[in-house]
Predict the 3D structure of the following.
Amino acid sequence: MKDFFNALADPSRFFLIFTVAVLAMLRWREFFTAPKVALTIFAGAVIFFVWALKDPGFKANISKPDNIPIIFMLFLVGYFSWLSLYRAVKNDRRIDRGELPEEAVESPKKVLVWPDLVYSEFICMLIGTAILVIWAILLKAPLEEPANPNKTPNPSKAPWYFLGLQEMLVYFDPWLAGVILPGLIVNGLMAIPYVDTNPKGNGYYTFKERPFAITSFFFGFVVLWVSMIILMTFLRGPNQAFFGPFEQWNLHKVEPTVNIQFSQIFWQQWLGTSRPINWLMREMPGILLVLGYLAVTPIVLAKTVCKKMVTQMGNPRFLTMMIMFLIMVAMPIKMVLRWTCNLQFIVNIQELALNI
Amino acid sequence: MADEIPNPPPAGGPAAGGAPTPPPAPAATPATGGATAAVAKPAAATAAKPAAKKDDSRIAPPQKTYVPRPGLMDQIKDSQIWRSIFRHGYPNTVRNRSLAVLSNVFLHLHPVNVRTSGLRLSFTWCMGGLTFFLFLVEIITGVLLMFYYRPTGEYAYQDIIALGEHVPMGVMREIHRWAAHAMVITVWLHMFRVFMTGSYKPPREFNWNIGVILLVLTLLLSFTGYLLPWDQLAIWAITVGSNMARATPIAGYEGPLAALITIDDVKLVHSGDDARFALLGGRFVGEATLLRFYVLHCIFIPLVATILMAVHFWRIRKDGGISGPL
């Protein structure tokens, strides 16, 4: 049983399962948001946790004080995904019947902030204070040995909320995973309101009226951000090697690195020649591939599948959205390439420290 | 004060108080005869606004016939001290409830009234409010921690131990740390909710952008605070995190293209002047980093975040309150 879960949690399978689960939840949201189904899933998750906590290794990993918030977050993200989709499904049904969404029925009525809103804020504050104080009394903040620059712990990890980025380091060079991509995430988030020109779904929960926006957000937030944090926190141990949830963190586990570069595949495997000495020539296929991915794909899509979208949005918006979207999707593409053909870098210019 | 008398308020009570100069029509309806002034209807909320200019409610209406002997509480509430602080009566009328919000600098972050749909916890999840609450908790506990903590390599770690063992009520560091983690989560969930309700759509695009900056500031606050305990966990987490900076294109010495910036084969971008050096104040995480992160953590980032929060809250009101269907 534990071996089964260990095998399931292998990065490629873990990612695949998470992606399929989220997409399935969105596709068959009517089924998954039914309270009975959702409660069953929740109960299943709780039972799994209780059962898994019997395993000392799993317990030690989960109950590190700084990992407790991640467990909270996991359940909260699950709960709120359910809640938002549940309300969206309800509203979609109403809209199908030609009625207004629930919020639209209620919203013309206004209530006074004092007492209604102020009281519920006050109660939220009280509950928040109570939770914090209890949490603080029950769980000591972690404190390890005094700082020692000469002794590197293994594994050394960034604070937990940055672990999604640290997981990207496995697949991308630091200049991308640590600098460019975080910058693009921030910029992409900022671009959302200017790119999403769909006037519907403003101020109420709905899925049907904006399926693409919500699916992309779920993919970016739940799959790429939250699941990567879980992967990096709980499933990576010494030397950033992968460990199943019930596997001992063995210091000597080293994953074989047989990574190859795209230039090797192109020149040696496909053309059967040695790689050119000039780095520009050597990496030209990779550079063209990356440029083609970022520049040609949007144009091709604009002329074919997304014609209607382009006329609605206009060129600058469409281009911004497509590039952000393609960069987001580049992460799973790179992961799959690594798993399937051990590809390390598509462009590998060591001379300039420029690897993509 | 007329509206605090326990028996049914006589005609000419709060709602009708401002009626003599006739405001738009609806105000005329409650002020009929000796019937108890029916005030708590929504129409009166708009009608009461003109009355706010001239406050007659504290002047006892002349036609009152029976006044019960004022109790101690009434005397306190009628004193100059009390009335200098609270410029409205007990908030049980629409007008006084509006004034309770309007005349209070903290409460007036809110509008006077909100959409019923925006009041539901299942709509807002209270995540924005909780984030602000956690920020306040961080300020209070943070100030208490600053009384004891010295950001030097010599004392930092010992002060952290003392915070748990020698200081009375030694859970402040715990509250501070858990509230920080919780704040990161509530910010994410708040953005999740805002996205799911499409609340970033016009007219709220700009406020979403402020929110994204606040997200970054929250993460930076948490990141700079992570170093302060000055233990192994802290310096290595910051080392791993800040190692990214040396891979900054051009500006980091291990970053792409940085090797191209040379004068006569002398590299201009090296480990002693690159982006990481600027961040850490040194080639590795050391005492200079500790001081730098301490100042950023305690002064600079909270200050910027506070200013942006003010803008964020103000814009919520200016953009039409908690979002609802148009």
